[in-house]
Every structure is written in structure tokens, then in C-alpha cells.
Amino acid sequence: MIRPVDFSGPITPSAGRSTVRRKEGAQTFALPEETAEASGAAGAGEVVPLEAMLALQEAAGEPRTSSRDREAKERGRHMLALLRRLQAALLAPGGQAGSEGLLEKLAASLDGLPEAEDPSLQAALEAIALRVRIELARWRGR
Fold first, then answer.
1. Which helix (H) or strand (E) holds 89?
2. How far is CA 94 from CA 74, 97, 100, 103, 132, in A?
3. How confident is the model at residue 128 (pLDDT cuts 50, 70, 90)?
């Protein structure tokens, strides 16, 4: 519940500052001593680099990753690696001749596509699979 603030007197500026008259016995805000000491100690602590914090959070989050999510990540990384290799092979001189084996590997990577528990990971995996299907249709049709 919000209570209105009770000022018993006018607020008058004096030398760039404003003064407020308080009622006698009015309470003021103060931190408990142990809280004030703890916040002072934490504020004076060593600065931790952002990269270290992110690595720590990532490492701390790893055990919570389900086996389905780990499998989905691995499959997605594998398909992306195959797509990069296909791109490099097709851009190389005479590359289209050596791309057939990569196309077969890409087609095989779609078999038994795992389902992730994390919805955003599942969406990313489906987007990668769609890209693989597009590339297969594109290059097999030639």
C-alpha cells in the first residue's frame, strides 16, 4: 500500500539545495549494518572480465542440458559443417564434380533428425534442416 508523504512545512530552496522539514519522530531509511558492510565489500571487489563470466555461466549451464538437446546441437553443428564444406567445394575450381559425396552426406544427416526440448534450439535445427533440403534440391536438379 502506498501512503502519501506528509510534509509539515513549505519546501524552500537555499543555495542550490532544497530543505524539507520533517515531523518530529519521523523515520528515515537506513541499511542494517551487516548489509551495508556486505555491499561495501562487494563493491570494492575485483572486476571479473566479461568473457570469464560468460564462460562460467556456459559451463554451469552444461549439466542442465538434456541429452536430447545435446544430440540436437551436435546434429545441427554437423549439418552446418557439411554445408560449409559443400560451399567451399562448389566455389573451388572444378568443385561441382567433388560435391556429390557431400550431397550424399547431407542427405544422410537428415535421417532421424532429433527433437530438442528447448523450443529455440528446435527452431534453429529445423531452419538448418530446411537449408539442407534446399541445397539438396538445388544441386541434385542440375
1. helix 67-91
2. 31, 6, 12, 16, 22
3. very high
pTM strictly above 0.90: no
Question: Could you report the per-residue pLDDT of 91-108, keeping only the tens digit for each?
Answer: 888 766 667 888 899 999
CA distance 142 to 97: 12
Contacts of 105 (CB under 8 A, 6+ apart): 82
Is residue 91 within 8 Å of residue 75, measured between CB atoms? no
Q: Give the separation between CA 80 and CA 134, rounded to whole angstroms.
A: 13
- Cβ atoms 136, 106 nearer than 8 A: yes
Handedness of CA 102, 80, 130, 126 (dihedral sign): positive
Residue 48 DSSP one-character state = P
On whether the CB atoms of residues 136 and 107 are closer than 8 A, the answer is yes
Tens of pLDDT along 45-71?
A: 455 566 666 666 665 555 567 889 999
Burial class of residue 106 in the structure, from the number of CB atoms within 10 Å of its CB (0-12 exposed, 13-18 middle, 19+ buried): buried
